[in-house]
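Closing statement on the pyridoxal-5'-phosphate sub-project.
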Amino acid sequence: MKLYSTNNHDLNVDFPTAVFNSMPLDKGLYMPVNIPVLDQEFIQQIDQYTLPQIAFKVASALLDHAIPAADLQKIIDEAFNFEAPVVPLEAETYVLELFHGPSLAFKDFGARFMSRIMAYFLKDGEQLLDVLVATSGDTGGAVALGFLGVPNTRVTILYPKGKVSEIQELQLCTNGENIHAIEVDGTFDDCQHLVKQAFADEELNRKLRLTSANSINISRLIPQTLYYFNAYAQLRRAGKKEVIFSVPSGNFGNIAAGLLAYKMGLPVKQFIAATNVNDTVPRYLKTGVYETKPSIQTYANAMDVGAPSNWVRIMDLFNQDKAALQEVLKSYSYTDEETLKGIHSIYEQFGYIACPHTAIAWLALEDYKKENPQENATGVFLSTAHACKFPDVFSEEMSSKIQIPVHVQELSAKLKHAEKMDTVYDSFKSYLTTFY
Ligand SMILES: *Cc1c(COP(=O)(O)O)cnc(C)c1O
């Protein structure tokens, strides 16, 4: 597999280089030089394949022999050992539940694949890989659980004190082994700043082999394509032919993967990017002006992104052709108040409890249907997290009905450990170099 940089189409690196660097030096993003189109026969018969089979077909087409088939199959079987069901709410509305992995968020797909790919490419006797990650909640849990016990790796997670939910904190601080959590007395931006300083610190980089696990890594994007194919397979089994996906979007990695799947031949009639008030993309699609803003805090905090990092990938997938993109992609944004109403409305209509991000995707699907009354394709909105990770938004009645999965309930019996730290870079640096 060859990859180029969105800032330099002449650059040409192999897959392991893109995985370990995460970002090219020119600060573009890596994209596959060749986007393979899957054979029509496979798409036509996709209803006969299981999730691991679909995952293998999609990943091996993209990776193009970067990993031998038997090894790739093993990585896939280990990484995707949980379900991604489409659940019907009404005749033409389904929810694609992506929260059945260990951290209860869709980021498990990316993080579990990435950790295994990195471990695979690390050769025996090579220097230990130090993964640094700043998190506002969901990323840290997925990365921690993705790398837990993976040999030759060590993960340091920075999270803002008092700003992650109880379950998220448990997922970050109860792992032990090769996972270390740092509770920073500051904001998510402070955490991110500390990590960025570490990556830019030449002295530190001579001592440690640092890598980032953030969502721009190509090995997180690739596995996100497969659940779109797998959802389509399930809908075909239910007798559906045409599909619309509505995706809760923050950094736009999830929907970028959906659009990549589309370019690989997945028949999707429409994509909808659903955002909160961090509405850079819906504004762009409406006005043609791409203007980023500082992020605004909302209930759907995993989507609080003012400058979505994967947007350049989407523009590249469509050769910068905005009109072509607008054909396939619509976008809507919602306030916190609308989000709460959405959560209650889904519950009242279907008895379904959706996390704030998921509710936003449902609202966008509803608005799209209202604007396009002739549309008869089946609507699927993506549920990116389990409701129990965002407990503050539900009524008492709803909270009492949320079933916390057993493996998460068990975390509360475990010992929580996080290093407490200020926002001064020297504290972080000396932790990394001396306290381990
Ligand atoms: C990360 C996350 C998102 C946003 O996904 P992107 O790929 O950044 O667009 C949405 N919902 C939840 C629950 C998340 O954790």
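The chain has a mean pLDDT of 95. With this model delivered, the sub-project is considered complete and its resources will be redirected to Aim 3.
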